[in-house]
Amino acid sequence: MNTSEVSCKIAVDTMGGDKGPTxxxxxxxxxxxxxxLECDFTFLGNARLIERLLKVRKHSINPARINIHHTTQVIDxxxxxxxxxxxxxxxxxxxxxxxxxxxxxxxxxxxxNTGALMAGGxxxxxxLEGIGRPALGTIIPTxxxxxxxxxxxxxxxxxxxxxxxxAILGSNYARSALDIDQPRVGLLTIGTEEGKGNNLINTxxxxxxxxxNVINYAGLIEGFQVFEGQIDVIVCDGFVGNVLLKxxxxxxxxxxxxxxEELSKNYQRKIGAALSKAAFNDxxxxxxxxxxAGAPLLGxxxxxxxxxxxxxxxxxxxxxxxxxxxxxxxxxxxxQSDINQANRIISTHLENNPR
Length: 355
What we know:
The protein is of the alpha/beta class. β1, α1 and β2 form a beta-alpha-beta unit. α3 crosses α5, α6 crosses α7 and α6 packs antiparallel against α12. The chain contains 12 helices and 11 strands. The chain has an 11-stranded mixed sheet with strand order 3-2-1-4-11-10-5-6-9-7-8, sandwiched between helices. It has 2 domains: 155 residues, Isopropylmalate Dehydrogenase (3-Layer(aba) Sandwich); 154 residues, Isopropylmalate Dehydrogenase, CATH 3.40.718.
């Protein structure tokens, strides 16, 4: 069956983001009208508010493809995950996770509390068999084509097995979201010389070298190689990945602000900036995280995507697009098959090479 013919139902947690339901409806409209996304949607949150927002553009909306699920509670960004999940069972996030678990939605998109979303997804959907912990993967720009960075915060304290699983999760995500048949996988470390990293990196490196039938492992990479475009999947633990992601986004913002400041200092520079406006717009689009917004929590028995709490409608629209891609590429079955094969190989290697 052609992937464009695969049905897809997406649950949307409209109450989780900083900008509220309004931005989610704008994102939905952007996804359907500008990106051509064809899915069934369930919007969870304040039903009366959602209905009022949809009525504004009712001429361009197919009501048969929309369902509104009223909820009475909201999980705030600063709430403790387990407490929130236990005490706010009628929140838009918890109800959306329930829809995915019961098979009434194929994917969930939320901009809400990251900890609650990860805990809820892990506890309610459960990890795939053989996976210890799920990982957050995101797409970042490079000099050539975008690449996947995994993990960006789900699992700060990882084992070698966790990182091996991250490599498999990232490879499957790259095939789905970036349409790369054999993604090149690199393990992020402080030096490419054999043995230079810590025990976590060295052990993971040995495991990955034995998985040539599962992933396309290109070897160790350093920080300066991240944006070169030679690697399609960059593997690290959640602590390193989160620092790298946030530092990169801050750096892109700083560079953009500096360019704008320098080009505004005199009339000659302002004229040059006006003549180069198209180039600057292209650069901003290329570096903007909005184009690949939505970090999937990979390794679960269901599709959950986490987008920034401050996501605008373009970022939300693209998160919905990525959710559709995950569903149509049947990533969960592919991940399970690769994990099973990798775990067998690692287990055999450890049995034959006891420490």
